[in-house]
Amino acid sequence: MLVLWFSIRPGLGQPGQSVDLQTLLEVKKSLVTNREDENILRNWNSDDPNFCNWTGVTCRGRVVIGLNLSDFDLSGSIPPSIGRFSNLIHLDLSSNSLVGPIPTALTNLSSSLETLHLFSNKLQGKIPSQLGSLVNLRSLKLGDNDLSGSIPETFGNLVSLQTLALAKCRLTGPIPRQLGRLVNVQALILQQNQFEGPIPPELGNCTSLVFFTAAFNGLNGSLPTDLSRLLNLQILNLGNNSFSGEIPSQLGDLRNLQYLNLVSNRLQGSIPKRLTGLENLQTLDLSNNHLTGEIHEEFWKMSQLEDLVLANNRLSGSLPKSLCSNNTSLKQLVFSGTQLSGEIPAEIRKCQSLQALDLSNNTLTGRIPDSLFTLAELRVLYLHNNTLKGTLSPLVSNLTNLQELALYHNDLDGKLPKQIGFPAN
C-alpha cells in the first residue's frame, strides 16, 4: 500500500487563507515604500504565515476581517488589492502620510465593510462616487486630506451610516440634498471646506443627528426652519459662513441642544426669545453678525448656560439687575461691541462662576462696582473703550486668578492701586 505524506505549512490550509496572505504582503509593499521604514510592519513577513497574529490584523477564524494601521507612519499609497479582502469589516489607515487617490476597488467590499477611516493623511483626488455602494458602512471618516471635488450624491445611499466626517478636505460645491436620506446618521462633520450654497432642507430628515457642524465654509442663504426637526441635536455649529436673514425662532424647539454657534455670519433681526427656553444649552455664540434689538432678560435665568457670546452686533439696552439671577454656571460673558449703555450693576456679584468678562467697546458709564471684585474665578476682565469713571478700587487685589486686565480709553482717574503687582523682568 502506498502511503503519501504531505507537509502543510501552518495557516495555509485553505485557498482563501493563502489569498489573504499574499494580499497582505501586497498591501505592505504599497503602504511601506521607504527603505528607512523597513521596521514598520516588520512581522508582516512570509516567514510567518500566521498572518492573524500580524500587527494590526484581526481575523475571524482564519479570515481577515479588520486592518487597523492607524498612526503607523505609513507613507505609501492605498493599493487596489485591498479590495480583495471580501470579508473585511473594519479598515483604519488614519493618521499616516499616505498619498495618492482613494481606490475605487474599495467598492468590492460592499457586502461587509462597516468602518472606513482614512482621515489625517495626504490623499488626493476626488472622492469616488462608487463609495456610495458601501451600503453597510456605519462610520466613514475621510477628513484632513488634500481631496478635491464635491461630496458624491451617491452618499445618500449609505443609509446605515452613523458617522460621516469630511472636515478639512478642500471639498467644494453644495451639500447634496441626498444626504437627507441618512436617517441613522448621528454625526455629520463638514467643517473647514469650501462648500457653497444653502443648507438643503432635506437635512431635516436626519432625525438621529446629535452632532452637526458645517463651520468655516462659504455656505449662504437663510437657515432652514427644517433644522428644528432635529430633536436629538446636541451640537450645532454653522459659524464662519455667509448665512443671512433671521435666526429661525423654531430653533428653540431643539430641547436637547447644548451648543449653538452661529458666529461670523450675516444674520439680521433680533435674537429669538424662544432660544432662552433651551434649558440644556451651555454655549451660545451669536457674535459678529448684524443682530439688533435688546438682550432678553430671560438669558439670565438659563441655569445651564456657561458661555454667552454676543459680541459685535447692533444690540442695545443695558445689563439688568437680574444678571445671573438663576444662573450659577456662567463662565464666559462676552458683550464687546454690542452698544451696551448704562452702568455695570452691583448684582454682577451673583455671577460667581465667571472666568471671562468682556464688556469692552460699549458706552458704559458710572463707576466700576466693588462687587465685581468678589468674582474670585475671574481670569480675564476687559472694560476698555467705555466711559467709566472714578478710581479703581484696591479690592481688585481680590482677583487673585486674574491674568488679563484692560481698562484703557475710559474716564478713570487716580493712581493704579499698589495692590496690583507686576511680575519682575
Automatic annotation (TrEMBL):
Protein name per UniProt: Leucine-rich repeat-containing N-terminal plant-type domain-containing protein
Membrane topology type: Single-pass type I membrane protein
Gene Ontology annotations for the cellular component aspect, listed alphabetically: membrane
Keyword field: ATP-binding, Glycoprotein, Leucine-rich repeat, Membrane, Nucleotide-binding, Receptor, Repeat, Signal, Transmembrane, Transmembrane helix
Organism: Eruca vesicaria subsp. sativa
Domain of life where this protein originates: Eukaryota
Lineage: Eukaryota, Viridiplantae, Streptophyta, Embryophyta, Tracheophyta
Record InterPro entries: Leu-rich_rpt, Leu-rich_rpt_typical-subtyp, LRR_dom_sf, LRR_N_plant-typ, Plant_LRR-RLKs
Compartment(s) where it occurs, according to its Swiss-Prot or TrEMBL record: Membrane
Matches recorded under SUPFAM superfamilies: RNI-like
GO molecular function, one term: ATP binding
Domain Leucine-rich repeat-containing N-terminal plant-type: 20-59
